[in-house]
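Subject: for your reference before the review

Hello V.,

The reviewers asked for a structural picture of the protein, and I figured it would be easier to keep everything in one thread rather than splitting it across files. Below is the amino acid sequence we used in the manuscript, unchanged from the supplementary table.
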Amino acid sequence: MTKYVLRRLLHGLISVVIVVLIVMLLVYSMMDRENVLASDATYTKRQNNQREDYKYSRWELFGYVDYVTFQDWLNMLVREGEIDADVKKEALKFGKYLEKDENNDFLDPADPEVAREYVLKFKEYYEAKGYTVVRRPAVMLTKTKVDAGGKQALFAYRDIPLAKRALTYFTRLIQVDNVHYVDAETDIGPRKLTFTLFDPAAGGKFSPAVMGNGTQHKYLLYFDSQFPYIHQNLFSLRLGTSFVQANNTEVTTMMGKRQGAKVYHTVTYPTGVAENSADDLHTAVYVEGSRDQLELNQRRYTDDYTSTTPYYKNRSAIAYSFLIGVISTVAAYLIGIPLGVLLSRKKDKFADKLGTAYVVFILAVPSLAYIFMFKVIGRAMGLPGEMRTDAETAWMYVLPIVSLALPSIAGLMKWVRRYMIDQMNADYVKFARSGGLSDREIFSKHILKNAIIPIVHGIPAGVLGSLVGAIVTERVYTVPGVGGLLTDAIEKYDNAVIVGVTLFYATLSVVSLILGDVLMALVDPRISFTTEKAR
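And here is what came back from the structure prediction:
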């Protein structure tokens, strides 16, 4: 069994990598990159060469290109000590590029000597690396005045190959925090990890925690009253960063961050100051120089671990989706399996015909139609038709859970009935009857046990599938879950989110299949995944 699981896991990981590569190919090679900026208000407001600079800088942010401006290159030379600030200043004084040099179509006769020298060096340096170097002339409003955003542009760009993009993505997938995160030249005192039994962020109460100095996060391990109660910041999963739906926010943060109004309580800061605040000190991360920049930070903190995330009232997006999904899955199995057994035992009778009619209705009618129908019926019964997170009640969950459970119930009823009827005609059933067993005993001890084996395979998929949410149901009932995360990302060309969510979904699918196989083997000892031949 162990060898089988490891082999399936390895094959599954390979499949996940292939899926991610295909998605990257589709996103970055077959989707028009111009569409990324279609709804970008900042891009629309920019003009002339300034718009081009913004476009390429955003493309670099989204992972399409490596983009370097002439000034960026000069700044690099200054940092490396090859030129000084005066040379950089002179190199930037090139002409308007209103006419090209007769000996070099990349120069302007008005370029000063130093500018000519470094423009050509820039061109030679980046063309040798496979970049395309572009020099755009200044856009003039008059003969002497440059138009808004029309300053001359000189830059180099190169499309990022798929192999490099994929390698970068997978090597940065898991980030390990360490005491060398803060720049080595920064004086922050001893770089170390500290274990304490009395957490300062918990008011000095007994609460084990591991704290760091020199790390990105102040707290690497801690306990609190929020699910799942044990938290760690030592390992971070970096699925991708959203630059459209959420400005510079990790996909994992989008899914896992709590929502709603801030929750204020008495917070005792590291300096001993107690204030009514929503700050969660366990989320503190290092921001260089932040303590000296604000008087408020000086009053509260003893170091530069000043950036915190507030406490919020409501669950995270993935928690909403998971809660609704798990309850609906449990309800589906508790209801669907007994009803499927009933239909098989009452084959061709009224109960079977009624149940079959329900199954046909659910499977034939588009999900959007019956979800809206249930919503209308539920409202007529006094149930909330939308989730209001500002005034949350248990009744808000009823209609989304019912809408998710009913199709699953229909599917389980159909397959349990089919498997049960198939088993009823098996030879072992005839022998059981001849042995004097009653129909009830035969159904409960033999037929159901065998018929349920293929059904249990889908249990892990139903539970883990709850983590990805339900697109239609969450939209109809305004559930603040993760169901629409992928579709929103596709609609808004949020490429990193598309790749990250695809990786998340694919991994869950692989794990679900493996767990389903293991569960089948546990339910039926006759199933063996060993490759050893019987002697």
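For the response letter, the relevant points are probably these. The mean pLDDT is 87. The two ends are 19 Å apart (CA to CA).

Happy to draft the paragraph if you're swamped.

O.
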